[in-house]
Every structure is written in structure tokens, then in C-alpha cells.
Design goal:
Layout: E1 12-17, H1 20-41, H2 44-50, H3 61-64, E2 67-74, E3 76-79, E4 82-85, H4 89-106, E5 110-114, H5 121-125, E6 132-141, H6 159-162
Antiparallel strand pairs: 1-2, 2-6, 3-4, 5-6
Length: 166
């Protein structure tokens, strides 16, 4: 709630999911979107880029993780039946999400982002209103024993490639 945001309107809503049956519903819905993506929508270049990660349409981790955190962006809010426009929504929600991710890491937890497209199924499953749009789904917990995390250190850009100093 303390993240910088447009006009201090805090245009986000975070839903923490620990209920097993809700996580299962989310996994099933996400896998439907992922199957469509992998089989019909994804360009070959994108699928090639994903190969080293070993990712596919199966998302059992959504059900196995101790927690999911669905983050919603709010294009507008409603107060006293009045519509209030929110400003810099994507930027604000992105900053709040980044701070949360840092806090999770500093707390000793691991997480990954999951963004099937579209994610509107989250509104239905989590009973969120139409003025909210899913931004990202964070999968949170401790890694499984013998978990293999892809190592891409050699592919990471150098600091000098990412920054300019004047």
C-alpha cells in the first residue's frame, strides 16, 4: 500500500489464494488458455525462446504452490456510487508488484510470474468486479527439493548494456 502511485489512488487489488480447490480451478482455467496459446497463438520464435525454460501448457505448479497472489489493476474505482478515474495504473501496479516481489525474496520465499492471456477467468473465480483487470499471477512458496532453476547468467545483459550514465 505504500508503493508510489498515480494521485495516491492505489489502483490495485491483491488476492492471496491458499484454498486448494480455488487453486485447482485456477490451474484448470489457466491450462485451457495456455493450450490455446501453445497450439494456436504462439509464434514459432516465441516457442523457441521458451524451450530452454522447459515450459509448456501444463501448469501443475499453480495447484502445488502454497500460495498464489492474483494482482488486479483498477482502471477506475467506485466510491459512493461515483466512478473515480485512476491515473498511471500500469505503472503504479507494476511498482507495487515489484516491491511485493522484492519483499517475498527478502523473506526467503521464491516466486514466479504467470501470465496466461487472457486472464479474465481470474475475475470469475475470485469474484472480482469488472473494473478490475488481472495484471499478473504470482506463484509463491519454497522451491521443491531438487528443483532445477534455469541458469541464464551468460545470457543476461551487462550493466553497461542496460544503462546510460550522463
Amino acid at each position: 500500500g505504500t508503493a508510489p502511485n498515480g494521485a495516491n489512488l492505489q489502483p490495485w487489488h491483491f488476492v492471496i489464494i491458499k484454498n486448494k480447490s480455488i487453486k485447482k480451478k485456477i490451474r484448470i482455467a489457466a491450462e485451457i488458455e495456455e493450450a490455446d496459446f501453445y497450439e494456436n497463438k504462439a509464434p514459432k520464435e516465441w516457442l523457441e525462446a521458451l524451450k530452454p525454460l522447459g515450459t509448456d501448457k501444463n501448469k501443475l505448479f499453480l495447484e502445488e504452490a502454497p500460495y498464489l497472489i492474483a494482482i488486479f489493476e483498477k482502471k477506475f474505482s467506485i466510491s459512493d456510487k461515483k466512478k473515480i478515474k485512476n491515473y498511471y495504473v500500469k505503472e503504479s501496479v507494476g511498482i507495487a508488484t515489484g516491491i511485493l516481489i522484492s519483499c517475498l525474496h527478502f523473506s526467503g520465499l521464491s516466486m514466479l510470474t504467470h501470465t496466461p492471456s487472457p486472464m479474465i477467468f481470474l475475475n470469475k473465480i475470485l469474484k472480482r468486479p469488472n473494473n478490475e483487470k488481472p495484471f499478473v499471477l504470482l506463484v509463491v512458496g519454497k522451491p521443491k527439493e531438487n528443483c532445477q532453476i534455469p541458469v541464464f547468467a551468460e545470457k543476461k545483459k551487462k550493466f553497461s548494456e542496460l544503462t546510460s550514465i550522463f
